[in-house]
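Lab notes, practical 5.
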Amino acid sequence: MKNIILSTQKLCKTFSNGGLQQHVLENLDIEIYDGDFTVIMGASGAGKSTLLYALSGMDKPTLGSILFDGKDITSFSNDRLAVFRRQNCGFVFQQMFLIDNMSVMDNILAAGLLVSGDRKAITVRAKELLLKVGLEENIWGKFPSQLSGGETQRAAIVRALINRPKVVFADEPTGALNSAAGKAALDVLTEVNGEGQSVVMVTHDLKSARRGNRILYIRDGVINGACDLSTYVSGDRERHEKLRSFLVEMGW
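Output from the prediction step:
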């Protein structure tokens, strides 16, 4: 039986909009398993990103609890939560948020040194990861403005992985990329997941969703259905049709 890395109990998130209360997440109970590539899908405004930010501790819910590796992170102070995120979470966004006046290598080292004071070990790991994602040494000293979209996203993935997080959270990581760069980013996430890394990804894109082994479909703030798939293999038509049938059933 798989271990549960993340779970929620009666999770609610409400926003105030012009004096009206907008309920984005409502009494949501989910379980996310260690080592899975979990994909969260749903229509625009369904609560996908809100759920991702709550699970990762980037945003606090209005009500309910979130257990991350057995710890109720909703009870943490902001300072404790910030430390917890640095030690346990990696983040990959549609916009990469690399620091403009720092080189690729320095962006990654800055993230690593927030957790570890061992600069030599962090540098060694950064070099290994950069080569792993196909960023050769001639890229390391460049600034973000000098990179292509695909190079920037792969650098952001390395930054997300540098501290060996328990979970990598990805919010529409291919949304701003062309098809080739998007595939390269997904290949990296698929590879690290294959090595045992937990990944939770929000997407509306079918090609991206195929990479997951578990799909959660959210509608109006609640999980409307789940689909368990085999491990991703390129060209697996039967697996693809199972996912497509599930999404059609969900009204995607």
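Observations recorded by the TA: The first helix runs from residue 48 to 55. The mean pLDDT is 92.
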